[in-house]
Amino acid sequence: MRITISLRPLEPLSLTPHYNEVLQGFIYNNMDRALARQIHDRGFTAGLRTFRFFTFSRLCGDARYDASAKRLVFAPGSTVSFQIASSQAELLSSLADSMLKAAEVRLGATPCAVREIAVPPPVPLRPGAVTVRAISGITAYSTDVQLNGRKRTRYYTPHDSAWPAQIVANLKRKALAAGWDPAVLETLDARVAPLRICSRDRKVTYYRDTVIEAWMGEYRLELPPTLLELALDTGLGSKNAQGFGMVEVIDA
């Protein structure tokens, strides 16, 4: 399930291009506090991995880039929107209810009016391959411990042979965290492949002190309908709750 949130800045909205943390904070700050703490602090676990079961898109709207300040600036009165998806209906319901009751909300330090909260029509899910477009970059990586004890993170590109397996393995871990039967998961045939990718689709984002490499572009998914639904609701790849891995179906 997903919703589209449209805001109207009441003052100039100035954001660094690396605004994922600001948008993530906006989401947590505009849902029920107890629920936000539960999702942030506990999440859902599979082994040593923890998932928050939501993801969000990049911002859409007419912004000018202030090169001197290295910031995106949205004019007062303009429309700024983004999508958020989750397999937890309670999360989206809490977020929507809280925002619709608020006189104004703040994106970062900027006051905004809530212009609209919309529910896109559901996409019919059926067996077979579908084409999806990334609306926030998909990231896949592995972390190794070097001889000096320091950790080294390697980010994969969609052209790496290990990339599809990384994406599928991550999706199955999410299914385990959601309570799926491990024996059933073992029998599922799942494939993910890059379809239309170019060098411009590579996006490097700074999240706090971490540099994250992610990829936009189009991908072909061959997943059982239930696993496809989980991918659409929770995102592909890693770091979904930090604003990575949200996709939309463009050819079913």
Description of the structure:
- The chain has 252 residues and is an alpha+beta fold.
- The protein has 2 domains: 2-118, Alpha-Beta Plaits (2-Layer Sandwich); 129-251, 2-Layer Sandwich (Alpha-Beta Plaits).
- The protein is 25% helix and 36% strand.
- The chain is built from 6 helices and 18 strands.
- Strands 5-8-1-10-9 form a 5-stranded antiparallel sheet. Strands 14-17-11-18 form a 4-stranded antiparallel sheet. Strands 2-7-6 form a 3-stranded antiparallel sheet, with no helix packed on it.
- Helix 4 packs across helix 6 (225-234).
- The chain starts with a strand and ends with a strand.
SSE diagram, text form:
Blueprint (H helix, E strand, L loop, with lengths): L1 E8 L3 E3 L4 H10 L3 H10 L1 E3 L2 E3 L2 E3 L6 E4 L4 E4 L5 E7 L2 H13 L3 E3 L2 E9 L10 E6 L6 E5 L5 E5 L7 H15 L4 H6 L3 E6 L5 E6 L2 E6 L2 E5 L2 H10 L12 E5 L1
Antiparallel strand pairs: 1-8, 1-10, 2-7, 3-4, 5-8, 6-7, 9-10, 11-17, 11-18, 12-13, 14-17, 15-16
Helix pairs in contact: 4-6
CATH class of the largest domain: Alpha Beta
Q: Work out the number of β strands.
A: 18
Radius of gyration of CA atoms, rounded to a whole number: 18 Å
Neighbour order of strands in the largest sheet: 5-8-1-10-9
Question: How many separate domains make up the residues?
Answer: 2
CATH architecture of the largest domain: 2-Layer Sandwich
Beginning-to-end CA distance, first to last residue: 17 Å
**SSE topology string:** EEHHEEEEEEHEEEEEHHEEEEHE
Mean pLDDT: 93
Here the CATH topology of the largest domain equals Alpha-Beta Plaits
Number of helices: 6
Helix content: 25-40%
Residue stretches low in confidence (pLDDT < 50, at least 5 long) are none
Structural class: alpha+beta
Shape: globular
Strand content range: 35-45%
Largest sheet: 5 strands, antiparallel
